[in-house]
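Data deposition worksheet. Section B asks for the primary sequence of the deposited chain exactly as it was used as input, without tags or linkers unless they were present during the calculation. Section C holds the resulting structure in token form. Section D is free text for depositor observations; keep each observation to a single sentence. Incomplete worksheets are returned to the depositor.
Section A, Depositor: J.P.
Section B:
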Amino acid sequence: MKVRLAIPAEAEECWNIRNQAIRHGCKESYGPEIIKAWTPEKMPEGYRRVIVDNPFFVVDGLDKRPVATGFLDLSTGSIEAIFTLPEFLRKGFSSLIINAIKDEARKRGFKELRLSSTPNAQSFYEKHGFTFIKENLYPSALTQTDLRCIDMVFRLQA
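Section C:
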């Protein structure tokens, strides 16, 4: 499987991947009301802008449609939106995206990458060299509450 940059026309598909991944993977970390509020069917239009403004990567399935996503937020130097459709978990797609983001960050001169992980994904990021900074609360506009998260960092080497 190959990593490629998403195009704005795929925004809705990427939003769907996000929602399915959260609904599947985060149900042990957050209650059903939070999950429902966090994953509205209608995509915020700003999500398409994220694909335009940042290196937003996808991995395609056999049908040439995205099954995993993730991007480097150029304004913050953070990794965002690492999501995989539940039926494609444990196939290495998110790892491919993490590595593409690390490579992109190095090319752009970043010295480190940060992220705020959901509790259920912490061990995944640790396997990719991220280290724990602190437990935190992430203010979510969609849920209108603070979500428990794990702040992590990865030091990039040239």
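Section D:
The chain has one domain: 3-155.
DSSP finds five helices and seven strands in the chain.
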